[in-house]
Amino acid sequence: MKKIINIANQKGGVGKTTTVLNLGVGLSLWEKKVLIIDFDPQGNSTTGIGILKKNLNHTIYSVLSGEINIKDAIIKFEKNPYLDFIPAGEDLSGFPMEVYDDNNRIYYLKNLVDQIKNDYEYILIDSPPSLNLLTLNSIVAATDVLIPVQAEFYALEGLAQLMMTLKKVERYTGKKVNILGFLVTMYDVRTSISKQVHQELTRYFEKKVLTTIIPRNVRISEAPGYGETVLTYAPASKGAFAYKELIAELLEK
User: Fold this and answer.
1) Among 166, 198, 240, which Cα is nearest to 18's?
2) Which of these, 189, 141, 127, 132, lies nearest to 161 by C-alpha position?
3) Which pTM does this prediction carry?
4) Smallest Cα–Cα separation from 27: which of 44, 7, 42, 41?
5) How distant, in Å, are the alpha carbons of 15, 124, 147 from that of 253?
6) Res. 14 pLDDT band, cuts 50 70 90
7) Res 55: pLDDT
8) First and final C-alpha spacing in the chain
9) Within a 13 Å sphere around the CA of 96, how many CA atoms are in the beta-carbon half?
10) Residue 28 confidence (pLDDT)
């Protein structure tokens, strides 16, 4: 079965983009055919994978606006034939207002993804750190939602709102939204708050909390500055090992 995974959390700074890129690159290293779609106007996935925005001729907005076909927006990597990418830029921020009165406004991304989903084993969507129309499009387009949760004091705030949004999407579309799991990120073994957040998350969501925990690791933070993921930048680091564990866990699921 094709997997279309939206990595979502309306709270910023939880490791969402980092997880998208490491999961996508990691799966491609396992020789799985992967497409990453940057659906965040900030374009952090785009820069994080080493693409210079100033050199872009087309973005996902070019496809949404009807300027080009979705296949023409795909960037391929010479060194990695299993990984494709569709970039985003600031122009995407105006899209919600342009389709505000359209009754099908939450289906735009799904309609595009449906055109190419059979070309890939995994499609990963990086959505904005907010619950707006772009995020709704990402959820509707996906078969699964992966939710990174930072091991910090305010981490659980907003999760209830996200869960309510998922339920509303289910009611509106009549489609079940499958939560692939909650992924604890930026875990610091030296602090009690990290342990408390993990315990609370497990208490509320039980088996939906993934076994893999992503630690705080300087190599994870450094990698995007070099246009790489930690898997290629520092493959022997604790951060790389954790993302390898995540990939193995998700493949097992």
Assistant:
1) 240
2) 132
3) 0.95
4) 7
5) 21, 16, 15
6) confident
7) 81
8) 12
9) 15
10) 96
